[in-house]
Amino acid sequence: MFGRSTIRGGFRPENLGQNALTLIGNIGFSLFVFGVLIFTIIAATYEPEDPLFHPSDKITTFLTSTSNATLRSDDSVVKTGEDFMVANQTAFAEFINITDVEVTNTNETTSEGEANQLECDVNTPIDCKDQEVFHLMMRATIEKFKDIHFYKFGKPVVGEGVNSCDMAWRYRPKDGKSAAFYKDYRRFVVGKSENCSVSVVGIGEYHSGLNARKRKKNQKAGFEKTGGKKDDFSLPVVGELVNDSLPMVESDSVFKSGKYLVYVGGGDRCKSMNHFLWSFLCALGEAQYLNRTLVMDLTLCLSSIYTSSGQNEEGKDFRFYFDFEHLNEAASVLDEVQFWAKWGKLHKKRRNRLTLHLVEDFRVTPMKLAAVKDTLIMRKFGSVEPDNYWYRVCEGDAESVVKRPWHLLWKSRRLMEIVSAIASRLNWDYDAVHIERGDKARNKELWPNLETDTSPSALLSTLQDKVEEGRHLYIATNEEELSFFNPLKDKYATHFLYDYKDLWDESSEWYSETTKLNGGNPVEFDGYMRASVDTEVFLRGKKQIETFNDLTNDCKDGVGTCNAATS
């Protein structure tokens, strides 16, 4: 009776409002618990997408956010500091127009001019330093190369022979999207008429004016300021002489007073280039946070995904792929071999007290090391992956403190010089298409339409609305049989990376310089270098047509991943 009375009483009119509020509260709390449960499951299973495989705007957003730094293996070309730079259009606006160059009348008929003509000797060598010759050469250059903007001309110097002059200039393509300058230097043939007036007869090929390439005394190569303001930044200058030789180690006294950081061991070696950079820049970021010099290993192990042998290859040099000269100028780094040689020498002398602070747990944060006074902090990593990856140091609390200095790492200017040479041979006036085939085209389960959508007939159909007939078309592709694209030659002037293999063969400047850098041993133009150059030439096309955005509806990472890739 007591139970029934209680239940019946609960539905009395005066109790309905209170019961309704209780019921709503219970439902609300249940929904809250359910939401927490769902969120917990998502958080536990979520893996962030790789930032390095997105356009630079998404990369920048990722790099300024906090998230897990896990990377997946990928053979795509890594983005470096110059890719994150936003081109300062104000700085690039003030280029040299042909109307800015003074016109000199070489056919004067005044009495003074007639007297000069009587005295002229057509056999006299051309004076390359003459202002009239300089102006003629500048005007001829601007008139010939209509698809680039000129920002600086160097004074002409004597070429080869009595009627040739070499001149250098700094420029950018009119439609240039990257924040970089380029340097070219060419040989001019200057003719002299019977009355000794001069004219430009011919302009040589790309980088033919070798005498104008020489760097001025005390001039730093490879850098260009956008002005004189405090917030200016350095820009790559492709075409300058590269000086990536190792700097001299400081004197004993300076070395002893320095503070250093070194990472030893770990599981990062022979991983993808994306993985390497993610870890290396973590180490460099910590060194900068601690105000220490990073002791770095300049030898790399190239992952098998980039090698022709299909095996990991040791003995590669950091300088083959990245601009060490810029890194050394902009950051405090020291070659590992040089460091240990100096350390060993001084350590033998008992009066030289060099102290070492060893850290064997990546969970020891950079903040906890800020007060360390020892000469060297050594982070030693074990053999168990993934806890032995260098980038683990920059996770968690450290991620908001240690910033990866992407702006310090640029691509090798030797590789970018090949890119510039190819674009220059095409007069910077070409369209580009990226056609990905290979393993993806053969995998119908993940990419059911790719092979058909990238067939010659499909390409001709798709491109007819995107590229004008007769245009120069650069094709960046992983298709091994280039004759596959022969049908496109009926409508376009097609170009491929291997059309320019003279730029890295045994007679090339790249081959000569990298061989010298490698102790006299020839360097292979490996898969990563090929992909890097191919991608950069593609990115400099006036029109850029992508495989997965423009040629096929298949998703870049396979069926069902399109929304995830664009979110």
From TrEMBL:
Residue ranges occupied by any DUF7074 domain in the UniProt entry: 124-208
Membrane spanning stretches: 21-46
GO annotation, cellular component aspect: Golgi apparatus
Domain DUF7075 residues, every copy: 254-547
Pfam families the UniProt entry points to: DUF7074 (PF23269), DUF7075 (PF23272)
Keywords tagged on the record: Membrane, Transmembrane, Transmembrane helix
Coiled-coil ranges (or none): none
Full protein name: O-fucosyltransferase family protein
